[in-house]
Amino acid sequence: MRIVIAEDDSLLREGLALLLRAESLDVVATTSNPEDFLVSVGEHRPDVAIVDVRMPPTHTDEGIVAAVEARKRQPGLAVLVLSAYVEQAFATDLLASGSARLGYLLKERVGRVQEFLDALHRVAGGGTAIDPEVVAQLLAQNRPDTRLSRLTPREHDVLALMAEGLGNTAIAERLVVTEGAVSKHIRSIFAKLDLAPDDQADRRVTAVLHYLEGGRR
């Protein structure tokens, strides 16, 4: 796995590089600003980019803008975004696009090495990884969707793990149930959220959006 890191905090940038290289991952470039990041992506054609949301010069959304541009230049590039805070607009837009190979983690998650590495590999493998704290904070900020009240406690558990980007197998392992039970819960969730049985992947994304946004469509 070839990785480019874009992070303006030198300690975190070099710490990430050391961590990933210790895991025998190929960090081909580390950069501190959006311009050098895009140059590195063009030169090295990485499999994954790890990008800070807030970068110079204004420390607002330069990292996100650069990540979007990098994916335009290299379609299929996996991007794992790191943020010190919950950036609600980006987190929900990430899921609304239905795009694979994208992740959103709070920086504190890097210190939980195995969780961070699991998220990195999930994104590189074509999945989505959303920090559970991001999920929790988004829920706290939004009003409840009355349809969510139809769900059982176990269905809420399943939907929360879906929001983190976990697939059925991982959900089954986390809840210590069978994959068949997880599939049954998901079908029930779709029905209770009034999601028509059209495309399975689209329904999954829509269900997660209901969960994160409290039904504000």
Give short descriptive properties of this protein.
Arc Repressor Mutant, subunit A; 217 residues; single chain; alpha/beta; 10 helices; Rossmann fold
Walk me through what this model shows:
It is elongated and about 50 Å long. Strand 5, helix 5 and strand 6 form a beta-alpha-beta unit. The protein contains ten helices and six strands, in the order E-H-E-H-E-H-E-H-E-H-E-H-H-H-H-H. 53% of the residues lie in helices and 14% in strands. It folds into two domains: 129 residues, 3-Layer(aba) Sandwich (Rossmann fold); 72 residues, Winged helix-like DNA-binding domain superfamily/Winged helix DNA-binding domain (Arc Repressor Mutant, subunit A, Orthogonal Bundle), CATH 1.10.10. It has a six-stranded parallel sheet with strand order 2-1-3-4-5-6, sandwiched between helices. It has 217 residues and is α/β, with parallel strands linked by helices. The model has no long low-confidence stretch (mean pLDDT 84). The longest helix is centred in the last third of the chain and has 14 residues.
Regions with little confidence, pLDDT below 50 for 5+ residues = none
Number of domains: 2
The strand count comes to 6
Strand content: 5-15%
Fold blueprint:
Layout: E1 2-6, H1 10-22, E2 26-31, H2 34-44, E3 48-52, H3 62-73, E4 78-83, H4 88-96, E5 102-106, H5 113-124, E6 128-130, H6 132-141, H7 153-163, H8 168-175, H9 179-192, H10 200-213
Parallel strand pairs: 1-2, 1-3, 3-4, 4-5, 5-6
